């Protein structure tokens, strides 16, 4: 199968139906043992230091891994992607644009997906066959999610890793399905984690994945990964077709639509607090203002840049925030 790079989650059903192997360049970048080399490649080619590390990482991963075709999301994701795909075009890489319309009307979503299907010459019937196959795996991801927040057996990192991988199914649907099934069977046999604090992680997936282990050592457990869960399309089984599925996807649309789902998950998962991760030089950091005013729950905003581990200052801020949440929880118990 021909490989095709992704700058973020897109309707992979279309690409798979067209005979492609989707490769999420974000995952290639961040899971590399030498992830910084991708950033260095971009900066050597002229990308400024004051630019999101993810964009530079995607660029470097695309060139270094000899990706010749790419889908660039020009509406509904990073505002820098338009410039990124222009540079990739100059490098001789074929770019296919895709948009999540900001109108967030189902008919507009359908228009964009139909245009996408026309580009790759695939029918709705073929796309729906693939969607059904992928949704079987997405059901497994829902089971893993329940093992995290209902049974407290899966770690926050496991929840993060498997759900974020559903953007491209680790480039091998059958192999990924087998590894997910094995993980679920292993996790089911564990004793519950039983941490005092139940946390939500919101915002883009982190550069600093050690955040999960760090909070667990402070008597806390991430039982919700917002964007990673959206990549796994947890409501796909309720969607009548691919148009409805991508219309109901919160990540690329307005904050108001996103907040409705956040409020539901805060209640359902009985969260004590939220860590809102933002990336340096990313416009999404501004959304923290809206989220803090709209959500009735303590929120700590932390920012990542090039490092793939937490720095000392961020660790101190996390410790202070979690101490505050523990005190708050104890005082609420005393009131009863």
UniProtKB/TrEMBL annotation:
Its cofactor is [4Fe-4S] cluster. One of its GO terms (molecular function) is hydro-lyase activity. InterPro entries: FldB/FldC_alpha/beta. It holds the Pfam family HGD-D. It comes from the Bacteria. The keyword Iron-sulfur applies. Keywords: Iron, Iron-sulfur, Metal-binding. Belongs to the FldB/FldC dehydratase alpha/beta subunit family. This is Benzoyl-CoA reductase/2-hydroxyglutaryl-CoA dehydratase subunit, BcrC/BadD/HgdB. It comes from Clostridium gasigenes.
